[in-house]
């Protein structure tokens, strides 16, 4: 096997969770070329990936026209892939790979059928059942979506369809030297070089999670967390991450907590480098969480309805805090502080 394609719809966080699968694939076939098709918003994640050769983009969620699909099929056909892997539960992903003639096509079984197929199967069992069966035949290996708690492990199980049965490695990333230098320069600018600073990330912006709607942790709750932390560690610098989309939120937070400093990374590489250099991060369930896991920075992540085990591996320096009401805003600040002291 020399050339493999991975179709990975979703946000930056979903790409990072798929990195262990790409790493194992690369280790198993040392001479392999790996291409990925992702949405434009997620392309930046591969700035941190050392195993992918080409990144193609496609708006999976859009109402694409025939020209869009034709262009994508043409690109895929020109590359002559030996195998494809997709995390999509939509049957069209397998159909797409079948149309371009990829010999081995791996995905999850129990694919999500479109509404018209479900309707036909109910009203016209013979015809509808035949169409449903054909949709499943688009895959040459349908892997059961095992009930593993961590999404990275669940994605890694797809390799069973290629006969690869090895443990799932940790998420790992390669931070470009330019991004590391940027982080060092920011530490110098803020006067925190060599100090164990704390990073606060509110979870807004292009790196939002597809698995859970964006939810703000209230400014007053952040204020209580910050004050509680500084009561015990008064000399520790606290830095809040600002993105183009959360400037108003950052301004409101700094207005009540003027001791905060602001850092404004331009892309995921700079953010990863800054997280790597930090002592601890408090964040929402968003891409920065997975960056923190990759660089093994201590972190406390706030979750709404999603179970923390889906996005956090089991480790002493990672802690997830799930709201009892499925609303992040209802998490008491004292509980956040308890988790912080637990991983510090």
From TrEMBL:
Stored Gene3D superfamilies: Glycogen Phosphorylase B
Cellular component terms per the entry's GO annotation: cytosol
GO biological process: lipopolysaccharide core region biosynthetic process
Cited InterPro entries: Glyco_trans_9 (IPR002201), LPS_LOS_Heptosyltrfase (IPR051199)
Keywords (A to Z) from UniProt: Glycosyltransferase, Transferase
GO MF annotation terms: ADP-heptose-lipopolysaccharide heptosyltransferase activity
Keyword check for Ubl conjugation: no
Transferase as UniProt keyword: yes
Coiled-coil residue spans: none
PANTHER family cross-referenced by the UniProt entry: ADP-HEPTOSE--LPS HEPTOSYLTRANSFERASE 2, TETRAACYLDISACCHARIDE 4'-KINASE-RELATED
Name this protein carries in UniProt: Heptosyltransferase family protein
Species whose genome carries this gene: Acaryochloris marina (strain MBIC 11017)
Phylogenetic lineage: Bacteria, Bacillati, Cyanobacteriota, Cyanophyceae, Acaryochloridales
């Amino acid at each position: 096997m020399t050339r493999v394609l991975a179709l990975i719809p979703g946000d930056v966080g979903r790409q990072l969770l798929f990195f262990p699968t790409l790493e194992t694939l690369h280790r198993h076939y040392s001479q392999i070329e790996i291409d990925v098709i992702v949405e434009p918003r997620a392309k930046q994640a591969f700035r941190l990936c050392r195993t992918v050769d080409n990144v193609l983009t496609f708006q999976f969620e859009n109402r694409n026209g025939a020209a869009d699909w034709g262009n994508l099929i043409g690109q895929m056909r020109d590359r002559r892939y030996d195998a494809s892997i997709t995390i999509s539960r939509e049957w069209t992903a397998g159909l797409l790979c079948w149309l371009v003639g990829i010999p081995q096509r791996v995905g999850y079984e129990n694919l999500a059928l479109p509404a018209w197929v479900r309707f036909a199967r109910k009203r016209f069992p013979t015809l509808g059942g035949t169409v449903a069966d054909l949709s499943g035949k688009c895959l040459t290996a349908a892997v059961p979506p095992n009930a593993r708690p961590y999404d990275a492990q669940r994605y890694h199980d797809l390799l069973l369809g290629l006969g690869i049965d090895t443990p799932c490695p940790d998420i790992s990333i390669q931070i470009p030297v330019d991004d590391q230098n940027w982080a060092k320069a920011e530490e110098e600018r803020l006067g925190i070089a060599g100090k164990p600073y704390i990073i606060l990330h509110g979870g807004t912006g292009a790196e939002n999670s597809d698995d859970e709607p964006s939810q703000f942790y209230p400014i007053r709750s952040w204020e209580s967390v910050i004050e509680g932390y500084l009561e015990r560690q008064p000399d520790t610098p606290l830095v809040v991450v600002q993105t183009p989309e959360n400037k108003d939120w950052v301004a409101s937070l700094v207005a009540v907590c003027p001791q905060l400093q602001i850092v404004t990374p331009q892309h995921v590489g700079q953010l990863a480098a800054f997280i790597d250099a930090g002592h601890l991060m408090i964040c929402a369930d968003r891409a920065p969480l997975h960056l923190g896991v990759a660089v093994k920075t201590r972190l406390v992540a706030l979750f709404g309805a999603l179970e923390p085990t889906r996005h956090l591996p089991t480790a002493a320096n990672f802690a997830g805090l799930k709201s009892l009401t499925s609303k992040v805003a209802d998490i008491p600040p004292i509980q956040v502080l308890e988790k912080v002291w637990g991983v510090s």
